Target: Cohesin subunit SA
Amino acid sequence: INGHHQENGMENMMLFEVVKLGRSAMQSVVDDWIESYKHDRDVALLDLINFFIQCSGCKGVVTGEMFRNMQNSEIIRRMTEEFDEDSGDYPLTIAGPQWKKFKTSFCEFISVLVRQCQYSIIYDEYMMDTVISLLTGLSDSQVRAFRHTSTLAAMKLMTALVNVALNLSINMDNTQRQYEAERNKMVAKRANDRLELLLQKRKELQENQDEIENMMNAIFKGVFVHRYRDSIAEIRAICIEEIGVWMKLYSDAFLNDSYLKYVGWTMHDKQGEVRLKCLTALQGLYYNRELNARLELFTSRFKDRIVSMTLDKEYDVAVQAIKLLTLVLNSTDEVLTPEDCESVYHLVYSAHRPVAVAAGEFLFKKLFSHREPEEEGAPRRRGRQSPNANLIKTTVFFFLESELHEHAAYLVDSLWECGAELLKDWECMISLLLDEPLPGEEALKGVQETALIEIMLCTVRQAAECHPPVGRGTGKRVMTAKEKKTQLDDRTRITELFAVALPPLLAKYSVDAEKVTNLLQLPQFFDLEIYTTGRLERHLESLLRQIKEIVEKHTDTEVLESCSKTYHALCNEEFTIFNRVDIARSQLLDELVDKFNRLLEDFLQEGEDADEDDTYQVVSTLKRITAFHNAHDLSGWDLFTSNFKLLNSGIENGDMPEQIVIHSLQCTHYVILWHLAKLSEGSSRRDDLGTLRKQMRAFCMMCQRYLTNVNTAVKEQAFTILCDLLLIFSHQMVSGGREHLEPLVYSPEDSLQSELLTFILNHVFIDQDDDTNSTDGQQDDEAVKIEALHKRRNLLAAYCKLIIYCVVEMKTGADIFKQYMRYYNDYGDIIKETMSKTRQIDKIQCAKTLILSLQQLFNEMLSELGHGFDRSSSAFCGIKELARRFSLTFGLDQVKTRDAIAMLHKDGIEFAFKEPSPQGEGGPPLNLAFLDILSEFSSKLMRQDKRTVHMYLERFMTFQMALQREDCWLPLISYRNSLQAGGDDDTMSVMSGYSSRGSSVRSKKTNSFKHSGRSCAEESSSSEVWQQSMQTPVMMPSPHLTSTAMRDPKRARDDSFMGTPQHHQTPMDYNRRGTGLMEEDEEPIVEDVMMSSEGRMDDLNEGMDFDTMDIDLPPSKNRRERSELKPDYFDPASIMDESVLGVSMF
Model:
């Protein structure tokens, strides 16, 4: 006991309590202990020993008698027996604010202790020997808490000793220099007594150095060599982190291959946190260029491993691996081969931003670090003569060589943090595009100019928006004042430069659709006020003139939509330029609509006599109007009448060109949506509501008629628009205070629902080869197939949204769900998400839909193979596998899905016995094999529900059926067995052990279960579980192993189930309510198995084996209770009741 520390009323507190509270300065705590040691070293050491024991979470205390008479191994064995069995936590792992700083205080105490004792006490051959011996013994314990705590203490002790050794080394060097200087003096001036003093001092320092080295060797060989390959990742990480500190602090002693090899080997560790410590340790070494020469052999040996870690599955590890390679690159260019560099280059396109940014820094260092130095005093060169010109060209060349042309935004984002100055040199970019090349300079080619324009647009967007591109965002981040100022300055500079440069750029590239599309996006990032304040109105006039010419020249949809968006960005009522832009826009639209009406009238009159030129004129004008209608309200031009007349003519005559119909449908769709938007704002009259209702319903009927068009593209357009309209005008449109829109609600009739489903089945669920949209050339063909698949996915998603939002009946989803396995690669994610959403809406109806889909597949199989089919056939196995997948989607929480699973079994049983036997009386029912499929869902039933479902099954069975054992009756036998498995003693429990050798502590788990008020059967080993599952009958599915604890069957009651006929066995009373059910249906307990021996580092170069296995203390206080669930919810009577299900189940 430390009775000397009296600060803050802490006298007589144990050392552990003082350090845990952390209220005192650590130096005063250590000084008090040193005073105690000087007074009585045995008492003080006993206090220190108990400090380490208590820091491990052990409640035991080492007495003076034990300290004097027992060996360390005996003391540790005694302390192991004193551990608290109720908890597996110990101070280093306990969560909470009280323990948050304990590790820091613990490490600081050890460091300060050695520092304060470094001049005398550590050399007394008693204190350090005792401590090192104790920590070495504890670190070899099978108890994780002892091993973890003592390893941390030993490694921090070693680090403190390394500091002492470093100081001794420095003092020895100084003493040696002083001695040499004194000895080199003339004899008359030499002080012999000083020489003797220096010799004596050097001898003492050498002796101290030898003692410290002996201590460090004892710790290294006794603790580190064994624990750096411990089964616990945290312990391995501690060792690697500290050896990195030793090599960095005292490189002369530790930075050699004898120690570096441990870091190299551990880079193959299976746990990310350990690999991460290896990389951070190496970064500290490579950062110091003076140490590079000593790292050459290590670099050559482990470079390939470091390069491969840039693709580590743990993103944090990958980031640090790239940063380490960047440091290697800084030290020497020769180590990394071009192949090594290329493996890092492509990571600039990674979706994970920290990885991409690290790769961007590597790329920037490799490609852009050798820039031309500017002469002092010389005027700064601008434009294409600036030093950045070649670097920008290099960026363009890299972008083109990477062959990921659509990812320029990701490349810019990756380089932004390290190369923003280069990427913001828009003046140089503009000059490279507009100015003539210098003498001897090679001009940019067309592809390079396109790439430069795209990169330029991405840099402008990044500067103006200040957030990463889509897919790389890390959530919303609050900008600092400095970042906001930089953003405003950049937007001002962007506007000033491009307001002037954009018109000539558009004029130069006006015929190139791709270049124009990108250039037209620039005004979206302008500060429009500068057009007025900067007196740039004439440049605005020039821009509007260029846009109008582009609209007249192009018919490409992307170009036209870019023009539309540019007008939308410029038509901002907040700015004074609005009137000027609005007039230009109105004039352009007037011309387009007048031209369209004139062309349409002529086109409809000519009918079949219309030539290609007339058709092209109508299509191009309609495309322009449609592109503008997307972003602008054109209600004043009454486009609905003309477009509806055009569509109606197409239906009546049947020979309307495909493109005219597609764009006319789209344009009419926009008319409807703009009308609805105005009504939603409440700015229109009631008459407008009736008009929109008529127009919308007429248009929906028109789209429905186009679903039977001979042209696939037209049908797809009609389908997509119809799905959108049905979703928009569904019953949900009146929510959010829009009750006045109720007359507009439109629910599709059964015929329309049927047509939509038929379309999906005929156009989405088709084989890739059936798609006729293929072209010559393998690469082009692949691209076309991907595009066609993307289109089909959009069609399916549009229909699935109708199911999710209850626009069409949920049961129509059965035809979709049954395709889950067959088209898993193409649409699996969409179908799975649809199942998930429908389950959230109505669990029971979703379950009925799933079982309906299986029934449909079963009927299809019967019609194809006949009633005598082989149950091992691929068709039947496919249905069974689909049922297994459906079962997995219900998750592990049986309480939430209880009623849905019960209904699913009810429907399945009724279907199995629905049709009589084709063989006559005495034969199995036609659909009996369906029970084999249904058994896949048995594991999802709760214990009491299994009995209830079993009784319901027996209602359909005759006495003779129960006695049958022929192969044709195996599905019934299999299904009954699946319902009876665990029916009396619940499902088999598989409790994971604490380690592969943890059987000695498993018996403690029984006590934990007793504390929670429930008895538990003996635990089965995993090998026994597999043996039991292998003994199931033929055709019987292996039971799903769950983690629910075995429960005592003595809870059974003698009352009968509500509404169920009496059975030859007395069933359990499921009407019982109260807390008992709360306990029985508690969530499964799954213990942590990460501490098992399976986590070994098998792939280390030296083929290491662990010498210590882990036996954790059993955690018993970490169970999650279901106290929030109502007892009634567990009652199967309420689940099976007619009032809940809406049907009479039994």
In short: The chain has 50 helices and no strands. The longest helix spans residues 144-183.
